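User: ok so my PI wants both of these folded by tonight, can you help

Assistant: No problem, let's get them done. Here's the first:
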Amino acid sequence: MTNKSREQVRRELELIRKLMEDKNLSDNEIIQQLKITEPTFYRYKRRLRKIYTKTWETMNRDNTKYAYAKLNNTLEYCYRETKKIIDSPDSKATDKIEAIKALDVIASQMAKLSKHGPIFTPSLPNNKVIEVEGKEINI
């Protein structure tokens, strides 16, 4: 078993990407056409997924910051409004109970947002197979 040069691997990755996106070939068809082993194909596919993710994150960095600020402002607004309902003497008891429940959810979402930031996943092209916990799922 010989090691492939980086250039050869890069060419194979590009060829797999073209076959998957442009020609819409299935995994097995690509494996047969390129005459590569299944583990090699899925290793390449994992690399492509990492490249897609990194590219998406780079291109959408400003959008993510904007989404974070917008989501944070929305949560803060909801927090203030539910506090008004809770503190208002005119609110019914059932409304106050529901507001307290909502306040709990809002507080946990604000904590998740501050800890992890907005969590987005890049959308995959149509008719692609992704691996979820060792199983393939057709999209």
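One down. Here's the second:
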Amino acid sequence: MDRGSIRSNRSTAAKISAINFINGPVSLIILTNGDKTFYLMGDKHNSKDRGCAGECITLNEQASNLINTEKKCMDINAVLHTWLLYNNQEKIETDVFYEAPFVHRSHKLRKRGVTQDLDRWGNKMWLQSLGYLFSPCDSDRNFCVYSPSVRIHSNIRHYLSDTRSVYANPFSYLAGEMPDKLNEIIEWLSTLNIIRKHIGSIINAITKPSGFSEIRQVISELRANRNSTGQYGVDVLNTIEAMARNITTKRAIVAGETPKILHRVAAQLLKLRSKDPKAVEALYNYINNISSSLTEQLVSQKDLQSLAVLKFLRDEGQEYEALAIFREFAGNLWLFCMSIGALFMDVYTIARALYYDGKEIILYTGNVHNANYLEILGTELRYKNLLTLGSLGSGNIGTMSRCISDPKLEQYLGLGKKLHSITESGTLKNAEYILNDYALA
């Protein structure tokens, strides 16, 4: 681009005032304790519909520069590009956590060892577009235009990728696609029934270094019931056995503590304890409160005890009747597996965020996780809530908007100011040069 174009960009930036609309998230929460400030943005997955009206400032096709810079609204990818360039320019130590894998600029999505083609980056969901935007910070740090002051973390990849943990927790296999064949339903319920009896031991094994000795009985019962639990039981057994092996996790070695930490949640909490023991106690309290509530609901479910009825109906050839009974209570059981899995992932993410030295911590994740973060930070850790906008939780997208708007948004985020600063300083243009070089590398 010639110098005339650069002058034109600067002239446009000078006209930019407040930006009080963000296209993409369904919620925004800002919390602080005076030392760290958390910016929680909630995503409603699998679509970009119901966003802000009209055009917004967004990234160009190459994700190397901004277009429509005269607008008063910003797409979330443009928000983060602007924000992180500014923080790096101003040497503000920042950590970003987002719930998606890195999407390499060959238009390939790499997740759990599977490579998938993308028709176009970020075409279907905003989180995917961030994976594309942040990919230079994963593959070659020389092209990461936000370094060194900003660290980018794909929290879902970091949480799930270590084969020593198989999947993040035993509930991952039970929170996938619901079984629809009667024999698989019976195997699914049989596995969940065993987990229900030993759930306290499993939660301790996931969250506490001392908890692994408690799960031998779970392993024994899963082994003894392989015929009735099928592949679900095998997958859960493999996960728990992997947790029970004495594998040294070097990152978890803390002076005076055992280095034999086998699950990522326990390892991260142990690391954080050396830095902020009060925060760890608060996180344990949160785990106990939520898991107790969820477990109470599960234990009170008489539906798990209907296995005998389902088996009887199957043996009598009454599969239709058995499936009808299962559908009546399947949702609650599946929701339990999802909720307890999210509990571990969210505690792990917050523990990592607290361990780093970032002054600003930005989390862009599913809206359910956002509600959990608010509970952890606001209730357990006593962070002050500065701003809450949008809709929290897992509500129907028909009642939500993927547009955050408020007259105070510029006051709290300063996006117009940040864009003006990085344009005038040349930071935005320099980033474009680097990212275009990355595309050719």
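Confidence is low (pLDDT under 50) at residues 1-14, 107-122, 161-167, 246-261. The two ends are 19 Å apart (CA to CA). Good luck tonight!
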